Amino acid sequence: MSQVPASRISGRTRDFWLAASLVGIVLRLILLPLSPRCGFINDHDDLARWSIQAVDKGVLTLYDGPPPRWNLVVWRPEGPTVLQRNFDSICAYPPATAYVLWACGVAFKAISPDRLINTPTSRTIFALPAIAADLLLAAGCTAIVSTYRPSRAARWAYLGVLLLPPFLWNTSVWGQIDSLPLAAATWMIVALIRHRWIAAGALLALTAMLKPQAVLFLPVWLLVVVLSRPIWKPLLALCIAALVAFLIALPFTLHSGLRWWQISYVTNILSGYPNTTLMAFNLWYPDVLTSGSDDALALWHGLSKDVWGKLLLGATLLGGFIWMLRRWCKDDRAILPWTVWTTLAAVMLPTRVHERYLLLVLPFLVAAAALHRRFVPGLILLLVVATAQVTWPVWLRAEPTAIASLGVNAKTEYQTWRDSMPPQQRDAALPLKDFVETLRADLQDRRAATVRYEWLFVGLALVAYVLTAGVILSLRPVPTASPESAASKTFYPTLGAA
Hints:
Layout: H1 6-31, H2 35-38, H3 41-57, E1 71-76, E2 79-84, H4 95-111, H5 120-148, H6 152-163, H7 165-174, H8 179-193, H9 197-210, H10 218-227, H11 232-256, H12 259-271, E3 277-278, H13 285-291, E4 299-300, E5 303-304, H14 305-328, H15 335-348, E6 353-354, H16 362-371, H17 376-390, H18 392-395, H19 406-419, H20 423-426, H21 432-474, E7 475-476, H22 486-490, E8 496-497
């Protein structure tokens, strides 16, 4: 049998990478025109206004106070309307993201001098960093797979991540920048499994300086420290992470002390959004569907739901940690399944979880599925759930708390409705009680139209969690070649099942 020339193989491989990257970029550019009408306008308005503040007043002022209000386009059926959003918030992202916002703001001012928000131009400018991060994210997932199994699985993992609907929608339509910290985190995992300690520490710092959700990867580092010998190497990497993070944040620290830390970490993690779930189809969503309340501070058997969620997460992480140590001993191939375990538990069990946090799990689950096909069913189910979660503003008719919160907002909505009427018609307007009943009936109809889909998606999410956790618990390491052999230094066999 004749052999295929190496040059042809390398050429085919190169063509695959180019074609896959091109497909991923083109799909995102095709979806971009949908974002002004279908995207979540509030978050885009925040990002754009913070970028304007960074350019006009200086990037170091982002934590001093909220940005000025700015004109944005609201696309309605009757036509576009230019207005200013009646809401102000201080930049809630760490310093590395602040630099990204400043760069976007420079481009925004150069390309669109009026800096009108929620236009195709503004959406494209703020999507480009996330699109680039999507490519890096896919490449990081490929690097994880190729470390353990250098084969076609690594290439298909690259294409798979690029084509995942949740990332396509989140980046191009919703206009979020979640891919930036996730790309850094994925390459951090690559550095950890390849024992590139300096790079791992620097990437941990970059992840932490892009988004506070970097704390979800601290359990991964704990396992790495316990498994690694000599132990001083991962500890040195953590010191490097602290140093790099200090340098990234230093200009902001000199400007306003630790205000950036207080706002982007302390407030975000400890004080923000006291909801059981923020449209995340996790363990707490059935509670919202049945009770109509998402109050995380409400008591349940003597403890708040927030405390119950933390206890459940803590018990799951502790139990999983002990299991990993017993099952894997000092085998650092446990890093990948442990990363899936911790990130999935962190979005399925505690309260205060946003819908987009499920994206943190997907690249690592794709890598695990490429190495072990038993992860595939859970991955497919979670892809359906994640797609539903990031697209809920499009298909959900009314949020599950809408009816319960009607009494709180009724007077404001009633006054706004009356003020919108001509003065001569206001005396004949419905009284407040009838207005509220009309709203209640409308909300009940809208809730009835989509509630069955919510139950379906939360059911799929919980099933996927159980399936994925079961696979992780059943894994056991396949014996490798002797540590002295050259093969063991360059090739990690795939994970085996019990």
